[in-house]
Amino acid sequence: MSTTATHTPGPWKAIKGMDEDPNRWGISVDGPMAYHIATIENGAPGDTLDTEAVNARLIAAAPDLLAALKGLQPIFTRL
């Protein structure tokens, strides 16, 4: 079993207006070959369209966050 995580390469982009719903948020690959990779759903009690927007932006930042953490790894392994 591999311990290497794989995911759709970034950058990703949060987009409002997915699935024919002008208020639905989703995640797409950003670039010339853009395609939809996820739809954000309200699921927890109290979720709102604002919650969807924040979650979409956080998820869209995941590839950049992963790259930043990998960049910091050598610093922490020396401590």
Task: Report a brief summary of the structure.
The chain contains two helices and three strands.
Fill in the keyword field for this structure.
single chain, 79 residues, alpha+beta, 3-stranded antiparallel beta sheet, 2 helices, 3 strands, 18% strand
Please describe what this structure looks like.
- The protein is α+β, with helices and mostly antiparallel strands and 79 residues long.
- 35% of the residues lie in helices and 18% in strands.
- The protein is built from two helices and three strands, in the order βββαα.
- It has helices spanning 49-60, 62-77, and strands at residues 12-16, 25-29, 36-39.
- The protein has a three-stranded antiparallel sheet, covered by helices on one side.
- Strand 1 and strand 2 (25-29) form a beta hairpin.
- The longest helix has 16 residues, at 62-77.
- It is globular.
- The relative contact order is 0.19.
How is this fold's topology laid out?
Blueprint: E1 12-16, E2 25-29, E3 36-39, H1 49-60, H2 62-77
Antiparallel strand pairs: 1-2, 2-3
How would the global form be characterised?
A: globular
The whole-number mean of residue pLDDT values reads 86
Q: How do the SSEs run, as a string of H and E?
A: EEEHH
The strand order across the widest sheet is 1-2-3
* DSSP summary, beta strand count: 3
Helix content: 25-40%
Largest sheet: 3 strands, antiparallel
Q: What portion of the residues fall into strands of 2 or more residues?
A: 15-25%
Poorly predicted runs:
none
* Gyration radius over CA: 15 Å
The helix tally amounts to 2
Distance between the termini: 29 Å
Assign the structural class, choosing from mainly alpha, mainly beta, alpha/beta, alpha+beta, or little secondary structure.
Answer: alpha+beta
